[in-house]
Structure formats: C-alpha cells, structure tokens
Amino acid sequence: MYQDIQEILISEEEIEAKAAELGKAIAIDYKDLNPLCVCVLKGAVPFMADLIRKCEIPLEVDFMAVSSYGNSTKSSGVVRIIKDLEASVENRHVLIIEDIIDSGLTLSYLIDLLKGRKAASVKVVTMLNKPARRTVDLKPDYCGFDIPDAFVVGYGLDYAEKYRNLPYIGVLKEEVYCS
Ligand SMILES: O=P(O)(O)OC[C@H]1O[C@H](OP(=O)(O)OP(=O)(O)O)[C@H](O)[C@@H]1O
Ligand code: HPA
Ligand SMILES: [Mg+2]
C-alpha cells in the first residue's frame, strides 16, 4: 500500500489540526441551529469522525452513499444514490460533509436534491478541494486544503476501494492506475 504513494501531500498532523480548526468554526456558526450533518459515504467517514468531535454543539448525523467514480480515477458523470438519508431535511440546517470536491458533480447533485426537499439551508464542508478539475460552478463554505490536479488517496479517499485507511493524504503513483 505505502509503496504505491508517490508523495505525501498532507500529513496526519496537518489533517488533525485542520479538522479541529474547521470543527471550531462550524461550532460558532451553527450554535443553536442543531445542524443535520450529512456524511457522504464512503470517502467522508474519517473526516466526519474527526470533525464532529471538535464541533462541540448539539448536532445530528446522517449518512448518504453516492458513487460516481467506480473503479476509475475519472468521474463517470453520473451520480448514483446507493443509500438515502433516514432523517427528513425539511426545515433543517444541513451541513454536507465531504472528503473532496473534484469535478463538483457529486455535490451539485446533492445540494439540489436537499434544497428540493426543503432544507432550511444547505452548506458544505470539505477537507480537500481540487479547483482545477471543476466542471460546475461550486465553492465550499468550509474547506481544509486546496490541492493540485492529481489523484489522491488516503484519509477516506480510495482508488478502486483501496487506500482509504492511509492516515495521510498522498498522490497515487500513475503506474498504479495507468497499467
Ligand atoms: O466532485 P466529484 O468529481 O463528484 O468527486 C468527489 C466525490 O467523489 C468521491 O466519491 P466516489 O464517487 O468515489 O465514492 P466513494 O466516496 O465511495 O469513494 C468523493 O468521495 C466525493 O464524494
Ligand atoms: O483525487 C481523488 N481521489 C480519490 N477519489 C476521488 N474522487 C474524486 N477525486 C478523487
Ligand atoms: Mg471513490
């Protein structure tokens, strides 16, 4: 697993500090709003777990599973819902938790869906943002790191379901997916 990583982009320590910083900022903005935090499975699981423990206000958590990458490093362009929310979002302040915004297709689909279900507000927190690959106009409300145009893995991010358990975020060697 480790030998497939070309370079570590963001260390475990940097991730930990950033999750704490974002959690504290969200706690200030969402004080008294009892936000519904929507974790986008599977990639956002480690980030959600770190973030909510640094966000010391009443909040609720729910999960949605969507997929558009499959076993590829490029989006299929089609966002599939694999698991829907259990909670109703009507009149709730929804905070979508993502690991990465790349093309932006997943999030623009989710934001439209949740607004259509009459959420009071819909905002986004992402650990990573890859603006160079954007195909839709979308900016996160809270963002950990802007990253260059490279396929990254670790801290929840996968290639063909592997590498999600790396504690850091690293660039995957091209030879791993170009062979
Ligand atoms: O901005 P986009 O180009 O839409 O890419 C971002 C999305 O892609 C990844 O999910 P993926 O579909 O790979 O599912 P996974 O979280 O289960 O890996 C990632 O976790 C984001 O949800
Ligand atoms: O760079 C990435 N790595 C892993 N999964 C992803 N999904 C969108 N972009 C990426
Ligand atoms: Mg994936």
From TrEMBL:
Under SUPFAM superfamilies, the record lists: PRTase-like
Gene name of the record: hpt
Provide the catalytic activity annotation.
GMP + diphosphate = guanine + 5-phospho-alpha-D-ribose 1-diphosphate; IMP + diphosphate = hypoxanthine + 5-phospho-alpha-D-ribose 1-diphosphate
Instruction: State a GO cellular component annotated for this protein.
Output: cytosol
Report any one BP term from Gene Ontology.
Answer: hypoxanthine metabolic process
Supply the source organism for this entry. Answer: Paenactinomyces guangxiensis
Q: Which GO terms describe its molecular function?
A: guanine phosphoribosyltransferase activity; hypoxanthine phosphoribosyltransferase activity; magnesium ion binding; nucleotide binding
Q: Which family does it belong to?
A: Belongs to the purine/pyrimidine phosphoribosyltransferase family.
Q: Which UniProt keywords apply?
A: Cytoplasm, Glycosyltransferase, Magnesium, Metal-binding, Nucleotide-binding, Purine salvage, Transferase
Q: Where in the cell is it found?
A: Cytoplasm
Task of the protein: Purine salvage pathway enzyme that catalyzes the transfer of the ribosyl-5-phosphate group from 5-phospho-alpha-D-ribose 1-diphosphate (PRPP) to the N9 position of the 6-oxopurines hypoxanthine and guanine to form the corresponding ribonucleotides IMP (inosine 5'-monophosphate) and GMP (guanosine 5'-monophosphate), with the release of PPi.
EC identifiers of the protein = 2.4.2.8
Superkingdom is Bacteria
Name by which UniProt lists this protein:
Hypoxanthine phosphoribosyltransferase
Listed cofactors: Mg(2+)
Kindly tell me the pathway this chain contributes to. Answer: Purine metabolism; IMP biosynthesis via salvage pathway; IMP from hypoxanthine: step 1/1; Purine metabolism; GMP biosynthesis via salvage pathway; GMP from guanine: step 1/1
Which intervals hold domain Phosphoribosyltransferase? 13-159
